[in-house]
Write a structure and sequence with these properties.
Blueprint: H1 18-32, E1 51-56, H2 57-82, H3 95-102, E2 121-126, H4 131-136, H5 143-149, E3 153-157, H6 170-182, H7 191-202, E4 213-219, H8 224-244, E5 267-274, H9 287-307, H10 318-322, E6 330-335, H11 337-345, H12 355-377, H13 387-391, H14 403-409, E7 412-422, H15 434-442, E8 446-447, E9 454-457, H16 464-476, H17 482-485, H18 488-491, E10 495-502, H19 510-523, E11 529-536, E12 541-549, H20 556-569, H21 580-590, H22 597-602, H23 610-613, H24 616-631, H25 648-662
Parallel strand pairs: 1-2, 1-4, 2-3, 4-5, 5-6, 6-7, 10-11
Antiparallel strand pairs: 7-9, 7-12, 8-9, 10-12
Helix pairs in contact: 1-7, 2-3, 2-8, 2-12, 6-8, 9-20, 9-25, 21-25
Protein name: Tubulin-like protein
InterPro entries: Tubulin/FtsZ_GTPase_sf
């Protein structure tokens, strides 16, 4: 699909020249792979890692940076073990560091144990002129050496477009991202952006770029990450799908086949940090909640349009499909309340935790999940050259998930459940309590004292006191799951992906694995699709990660944030300050037949950003539009900030999506016979 025929909704710039894309990719490849110092032929074609993390905004860039730091520390500590160097004093280490240490088992001189050595590409972006300074000069010990040695970490310096934040307003973050992504990359003063844009946007899915999984990490409650993330995701999807629908045959004539576009699925996921919405000192009307609600409404309305909307034409032309794109295949939801619950379960006072500690706990939980997802799909080229030989792993025993597996299994909002058990030398299969492992994975977040991991579910299905009681009843009843499986969060789940990670020397019995599957089947009785990955040798502990798809949008947290936004920014004046809108949305989800007129009754045609920014909105709007005109000197490509407001169709489609998930059922297969 040529640049001239782009749908009016999407003016994202994509580099049309394949040669330039390949040149830019070669530059990025040269930056992330240290030069080969050995003598002899050096024509080894360095491949891109299969995974890329994109941290956007202050929160997202900090978390992505922490993941990269953990990977780097894992490698450094492993090498110190191999060289018999002195260990650090573990008692003085912070919990996240202890978690990594516990996943680096020490063994005698007889052999080596494996360690997590996958190194993803990490891109950091923020609408902050000083993002590099903030990262480079932070006082974290060893940060300077890490930045020097971890070449796969790249900073997206976007300050020439905007040198400040988005003022905690996602619509401004989204508009600034649109300017960045609509602008011809060759007109940027910063040469690096042209190269990184080719890697992230222009080349996704082609042979020359082997990355297939992209994780966008951001805070839903902020302005920069919440606004930029979905715009960056849409630009990537747009570039990818436009190649899919490009049927020109001239590429097939090329001698160098790395020029060609090969239809290989990519899997993209947003990792979305939801703000605290419960607790003694939290008020629900805060701008953070409204911002998060905007992102959730936008995403599930786009997901409805892309996946479910039956009102579209039967024989759509590619351009119509391009107008319906959504930013990611799935969006993982992780609540900041996790840290509060974890501290309370640990016997501490959540009110006394400082912001930095809360953030570090959040980063640790997310890092754990990314680790497990990466190990479940990592290809052998992602590991160190001698990894499998040293670890003594038989690769044939590992069942992995590739990008296509995740692409087919996960869509829409996703929650994470996680737990792990120590299974060191001498621990027999029968000594592992599989029932307890499963239960810990779906409990309220808590610390595992044996491993320093944060366990539990990333978003609570219902209010915390009610859910805590439900888990207690589940344990007391001898694991009778009927009460839990009746919660919409589990009952309406469409698919689950479970990743079981084992140490190299530990064999999980067939009985234990079956019991785990039985628990999952009973917990989620209406799942259409269940996928399992068995990863051997990537962890010192037995761990269980379960990804629960679609139904998390029916959780109390999700619904509360979404309705808070609709009420604040969409509701007509007569209903903005009453509970009528809240009840009306619940009724619209639950009623058998959807009454479309109710949406028009309660809501205005477009969101009103002034309800967040007060009177500043009317001063900000012309200022940002002037910036767009100056940076993109093409009147035909001008986009008004009014054009990116969410409209009443977003509200309508979001409610339709919730209705669809609320009614999710499957019919059980009956055995048929002709032998009466």
């Amino acid at each position: 699909m040529s640049q001239d025929n782009l749908p009016i909704e999407h003016l994202y710039y994509t580099e049309p020249n394949l040669e330039k894309i390949l040149e830019n990719l070669d530059v990025v490849r040269g930056q992330i792979h240290p030069p080969v110092t050995t003598e002899g032929p050096q024509n080894v074609d360095q491949v891109f890692p299969s995974v890329c993390l994109i941290g956007l905004g202050r929160c997202g860039s900090n978390i992505a940076l922490d993941v990269a730091s953990l990977v780097y520390d894992a490698r450094a500590n492993y090498m110190r073990e191999v060289e018999n160097q002195e260990l650090l004093d573990t008692e003085r280490e912070f919990r996240p560091m202890r978690w990594i240490r516990k996943h680096l088992p020490i063994e005698g001189k007889d052999g080596f144990k494996p360690v997590f050595l996958i190194e993803p590409i990490v891109l950091l972006g923020d609408l902050d002129k000083d993002i590099e300074g903030r990262i480079r000069f932070s006082n974290q010990e060893g940060r300077e050496q890490f930045l020097e040695e971890y070449k796969k970490l790249q900073i997206m310096d976007l300050s020439e477009v905007h040198a400040g934040g988005a003022g905690n307003a996602p619509i401004l973050g989204q508009y600034l991202a649109k300017i960045i992504l609509n602008k011809d990359t060759s007109t940027f003063r910063n040469e690096d952006w042209k190269h990184l844009h080719s890697y992230l946007v222009d080349s996704c899915g082609i042979k020359a770029n082997q990355s297939r999984l992209y994780f966008y990490i951001f805070s839903a409650g902020g302005g920069t990450g919440s606004g930029m993330a979905s715009e960056f995701g849409l630009a990537q999807q747009f570039s990818y799908l436009s190649k899919t629908f490009d049927y020109r045959s001239d590429q097939s004539q090329l001698v160098d086949k790395r020029h060609s576009f090969v239809f290989e699925p990519i899997f993209t996921s947003g990792i979305c940090i939801l703000p605290n919405i419960s607790g003694k000192n939290v008020e629900i009307s805060e701008a953070l909640h409204i911002n998060a609600g905007r992102l959730l409404t936008k995403y599930i309305s786009e997901e409805w349009n892309f996946s479910y909307n039956e009102e579209r034409e039967e024989d759509e032309v590619p351009a119509d499909v391009m107008e319906r794109i959504r930013p990611w295949n799935s969006m993982m939801l992780i609540s900041n309340d996790i840290m509060r619950y974890a501290e309370e379960e640990d016997g501490g006072d959540a009110d006394s935790i400082d912001v930095n500690t809360m953030e570090k706990y959040a980063n640790q939980y997310i890092s754990q999940q990314i680790f497990n997802i990466l190990t479940a799909q990592a290809v052998t080229t992602d590991y160190d050259e001698d990894y499998f030989r040293r670890a003594g792993i038989d690769i044939s025993e590992t069942i992995r998930l590739d990008a296509n597996d995740l692409f087919m299994s996960l869509a829409g909002p996703v929650a994470v459940a996680y737990a792990e058990s120590v299974v060191g030398p001498g621990v027999h299969q029968d000594m592992v309590d599989i029932d307890d492992l499963f239960c810990r994975s779906i409990e309220l977040p808590h610390f595992n004292e044996d491993t320093s991991a944060i366990e539990g579910v990333s978003v609570l299905p219902v209010e915390s006191d009610r859910y805590r009681q439900a888990i207690k009843d589940f344990r007391k009843s001898g694991y009778d799951i009927s009460k839990l499986s009746d919660l919409h969060f589990f009952k309406n789940c469409s698919s689950i992906v479970s990743i079981i990670s084992l140490p190299r020397d530990f064999k999980l019995s067939f009985t234990a694995l079956n019991r785990l599957k039985m628990h999952l089947n009973r917990l989620c009785p209406n799942t259409t699709l269940k996928r399992y990955a068995l990863v051997i040798g990537a962890s010192a502990n037995l761990s269980l990660t379960t990804l629960i798809a679609k139904s998390p949008c029916l959780s109390d947290d999700f619904l509360t944030l979404m309705v808070a936004y609709m009420k604040r920014c969409f509701a007509k004046d007569d209903y903005r300050y009453t509970d009528e809108v809240d009840q009306a949305i619940i009724d619209m989800i639950q009623m058998e037949d959807f009454d479309d007129s109710l949406v028009d009754k309660y809501f205005n045609s477009h969101e009103n950003p002034a309800k967040i920014l007060d009177t500043n909105w009317y001063a900000i709007k012309p200022m940002y539009e002037k910036k767009y005109r100056e940076l993109i000197d093409n009147t035909q490509q001008f986009v008004s900030i009014n054009d990116i407001r969410l409209d009443i169709d977003n509200v309508r489609n979001a409610i339709k999506y919730l209705r669809e998930i609320y009614r999710h059922r499957i019919s059980k297969t009956n055995v048929l016979t002709l032998n009466g």
